[in-house]
Amino acid sequence: MTEKWWKERVFYQIYPRSFQDSDGDGIGDIKGIISRLDYLKWLGIGAIWICPLYDSPNEDMGYDIRDYRKIQAEFGTMDDFKDLVCEMHRRDMKLVMDLVVNHTSNQNTWFVESRRSKDSPYHDYYIWKDGSTDTPPNNWGSFFGGSAWTYDSDARQWYLHLFSSSQPDLNWENERMREDLYRMINAWLDDGVDGFRMDVISLIAKNQNYPNANRNNALCPEYYAFQPKMHTYLNEMRKKCFDGRDCMCVGETTFVTTENASSVVGDGSELDMLFQFDLMNIDSDGEKWNIKPLDYRKISEIIFSWQHAIGWNTLFLGNHDQPRAVSRFGSVKDKKLWILSAESIAMMMYCLKGTPFIYQGEEIGMTNYPFSGSVSELRDVESINYLNASENKALAWSSIRKKGRDNARTPFQWNPNPNAGFTTGTPWISVNPNYPEVNVRNEIQDPDSILSFYRKLIILRNQSECLKYGACIQEQGIDSRIIAYRRKGQKTEYAVLCNISEDTISDVEIPEGRVILTNYCHRISRVMQPYECILIEIQNDSDI
Ligand code: TEU
């Protein structure tokens, strides 16, 4: 297995708006991130993916970029950014930026120019279609509800936006547009950026016939996901931006499957890694807001199908688009189950083969927010559009409480002081009321806290060649509520067993060996206690 820095390090995802505010405006910023780098170093983090820092009107919280080469004023300045790069590299931490090149903000000068005139050199930077003012060019739906087309009265044409109408899709057929993007990417790499997380990069090429979907306002990945030209563009980007640099690109490959994944990762000609969402969609019944109960068998099936599908995975339990991991996959019924379940799902995920991506707050067991049911509590365009379009508001709120993106975007909880130490001002979004108990300061002092467990797990992984590069083999014939596998290195072998249920499971074959990490202080022979997890060293020739 080829050794790479992005295989050796544990990543941490920062949602900058909610991580640490340094100037009291209630919004996280770059200086705030710098002030917390030592915490992340202490945690054992070797690389950080920061969600968009670019100038944006924030219709989609930064995923609508107005100026690719300007830092969002609320986050700071380009000098602050350069300080961040310097402070991270001084601590041997790699910086991965979010790259949003499927679409821009409708306030981006490219779009302002594009809509001004069909004769503008920027007109074809976007996807425009003629048509009568009341009939969109086709029936495609937006990810955020409604049609994927908006009629622009200035241009007197329709433009495509797979997301909100303030996020017009870029036309990747246009070579001049692509060259402008590559210039921008290279400028950030020259500024010291170590890589990119590429937003919905699997959607950049569209079927040029723009055929109708099989029903109105539906998503139709068959016409814009993993299209043949996507590979052409990714390969071109690789050659024009990444070749010759020691950098990493991980794609948010929406609609990726175990069948098509190896077409974009593996040989280094397109992406280095990808995010797949099978586990994130496990409780979606057809679409995100139709929620079905967790099926443990499905979790095991998904995890190991991906371990077999591609040689190197990303490992994550959540991100800025997903509900809080412990609320979704664990239990928040009481403090004991909250701690045990957060630890068990963490060991389940982060002892697998691949690069771990820990989302801010996951390491202290942050939970979903208790929305009371007022739209004023929401900030996310996806949830607001869904609520406004729902006739049954009670049902809509039930789904938003479980899966709304704002659950993951409430301020990081640093300490029990006002606003959890996130800001001295009024936070842009409410702080979870459980911050007096759930915060870094409480947990850093407690050897039995979720934070202490995460740190042990991360440090174990940082030190172990076996946990990084060893083969991952699923244990067969074990209860589906237990995720069990082996990690086999050249000199070392580990067994991992994680009960991801609150059931006590008896008659379990538990391998003999030295317990390296567990979340129970006493073991019961042949029993896995509720949310019990164990990392056992079966064999070791000087690995840890
Ligand atoms: O998300 C892509 C995406 O598919 C999302 O719609 C996601 O699946 C959904 O929100 C889950 O509920 C990326 C970014 O991560 C997201 O924050 C942006 O809103 C979106 O692209 C548009 O840029």
Kindly describe this structure.
The protein is α/β, with parallel strands linked by helices and 544 residues long. The mean pLDDT is 97. It has helices at residues 5-8, 30-35, 37-43, 78-90, 109-116, 175-190, 228-242, 296-309, 325-329, 335-350, 381-389, 393-403, 440-444, 450-463, 465-469; strands at residues 11-14, 47-50, 54-55, 67-71, 94-99, 128-129, 149-152, 157-160, 195-198, 248-252, 273-275, 284-285, 287-291, 313-315, 354-359, 471-474, 482-488, 492-499, 505-506, 514-518, 527-528, 533-540. Helix 6 runs parallel beside helix 7, helix 10 (335-350) runs parallel beside helix 14 and helix 11 (381-389) packs antiparallel against helix 12. The protein has an 8-stranded parallel β-sheet. The two termini are 20 Å apart. Helices cover 27% and strands 17% of the residues. It is built from 15 helices and 22 strands. The site of 1-O-alpha-D-glucopyranosyl-D-fructose (TEU) has 14 residues, from loops.
Q: Helical segment tally? A: 15
Strand order of the largest sheet: 11-10-9-5-2-1-15-14
Q: Any idea what the shape is?
A: globular
Bound molecules: 1-O-alpha-D-glucopyranosyl-D-fructose
Structural class call reads: alpha/beta
The total count of strands amounts to: 22
Stretches with pLDDT under 50, minimum 5 residues: none
What proportion strand? 15-25%
Overall pLDDT score: 97
Biggest sheet descriptor:
8 strands, parallel
The end-to-end span amounts to: 20 Å
* Range of helix content: 25-40%
Rg, rounded, reads 23 Å
SSE diagram, text form:
Elements: H1 5-8, E1 11-14, H2 30-35, H3 37-43, E2 47-50, E3 54-55, E4 67-71, H4 78-90, E5 94-99, H5 109-116, E6 128-129, E7 149-152, E8 157-160, H6 175-190, E9 195-198, H7 228-242, E10 248-252, E11 273-275, E12 284-285, E13 287-291, H8 296-309, E14 313-315, H9 325-329, H10 335-350, E15 354-359, H11 381-389, H12 393-403, H13 440-444, H14 450-463, H15 465-469, E16 471-474, E17 482-488, E18 492-499, E19 505-506, E20 514-518, E21 527-528, E22 533-540
Parallel strand pairs: 1-2, 1-15, 2-5, 5-9, 9-10, 10-11, 14-15
Antiparallel strand pairs: 3-4, 6-8, 7-8, 12-13, 16-17, 17-18, 18-22, 19-21, 20-22
The structure holds 1-O-alpha-D-glucopyranosyl-D-fructose.
